[in-house]
Write a structure and sequence with these properties.
- The protein has one domain: 2,3-Dihydroxybiphenyl 1,2-Dioxygenase, domain 1, CATH 3.10.180.10.
- Helices cover 14% and strands 43% of the residues.
- The protein contains two helices and eight strands.
Amino acid sequence: MGFEVVWQSETMGGIRRGDVAFNLVKNDNQEWARNASFSIGVSDLDALYREYQRIPAKVGPLEVKPWGRREFHIIVPSGVCFQFHELESLP
């Protein structure tokens, strides 16, 4: 997904891509992964969508949702769902 490893230990690690950073924890409980989701605002949604269509994940359509926001979802092999949407311009 284009993240770089910032730090890691035997059971934890930190990753970053631009201004988005996560701390990851090793866990064998698949129920947690299948029920985890993240919503991430990005500045170039179209470019990210094109990039992520080439990764080994289930990538949903880029579309305007009923709530009015243009976004797409991906589900990575672990079962975690990521929702990406265009950041709104601030005044």
